[in-house]
Structure to design on (259 residues):
């Protein structure tokens, strides 16, 4: 799975409310990802990029200090199977680290150095995305918004490391109460644009096409009945991303223990 993680948005929610305070958090979660029938049918008919439903275990954490904030997760995908002969049936390992360093304020708006590394690998495959740019924190009442824009470099199996255009994205969300219970809605989104010729090829049934722009993200609803427990429902989407042309979508069901 690319990366991608929708729990990034939830974890940074704490940072938004504690923008100038020290904080730490950590959790572990169980996740079931089910692709839509149309996504399964389309991707399994393509020459590469096949998708299958899978489970993954995740460890996630972050911290904020006066210098900025740090976030990361590690996913063990297909933890309960490892079928190397089945496309998308192999065990995979995915890691993401995001670090944002405070630089200055402009008119009361913080300017941050933004960096992230996303790495996913499995049987006879690896892909690593590196981004270096600028980001900020914005809030509008109960809504928080953390955009970034950066240069994108990619290291991929059988392709090597090359500049791969630009990446823009954000995490956003807000807390609310319904039926006497605490909830949160969050979104993370990434757009790749001006892709290098090394990385424009995506698959479709019967062949491949070239796409210089791709979209990747998730919209999530979180229920937080206790300090230790969170349950989530996530709508995962991608367009011209994850190796496939056109739309892909899935639902992710998450239960999480917060330390």
């Amino acid at each position: 799975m690319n990366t991608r993680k929708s729990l990034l948005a939830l974890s940074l929610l704490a940072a938004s409310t504690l923008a100038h305070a020290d904080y730490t958090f950590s959790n572990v979660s169980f996740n079931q990802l089910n692709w839509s029938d149309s996504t399964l049918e389309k991707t399994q008919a393509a020459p590469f990029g096949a998708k299958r439903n899978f489970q993954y275990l995740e460890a996630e954490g972050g911290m904020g200090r006066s210098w900025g904030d740090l976030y990361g997760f590690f996913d063990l995908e297909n933890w309960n199977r490892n079928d190397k002969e089945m496309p998308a049936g192999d065990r995979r390992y995915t890691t993401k680290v995001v670090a944002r360093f405070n630089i200055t304020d402009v008119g009361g708006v913080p300017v941050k150095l933004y960096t992230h590394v996303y790495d996913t690998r499995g049987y006879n495959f690896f892909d690593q995305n590196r981004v270096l740019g600028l980001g900020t924190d914005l809030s509008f009442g109960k809504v928080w918004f953390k955009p970034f824009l950066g240069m994108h470099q990619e290291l991929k199996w059988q392709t090597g490391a090359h500049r791969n255009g630009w990446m823009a994205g954000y995490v956003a969300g807000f807390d609310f109460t319904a039926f006497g219970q605490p909830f949160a809605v969050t979104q993370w989104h990434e757009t790749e644009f001006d892709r290098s010729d090394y990385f424009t090829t995506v698959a479709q049934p019967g062949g491949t096409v070239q796409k210089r722009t791709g979209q990747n993200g998730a919209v999530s609803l979180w229920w937080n009945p206790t300090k230790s427990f969170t349950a989530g429902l996530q709508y995962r989407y991608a367009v011209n991303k994850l190796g496939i042309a056109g739309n892909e979508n899935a639902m992710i069901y998450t239960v999480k223990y917060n330390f």
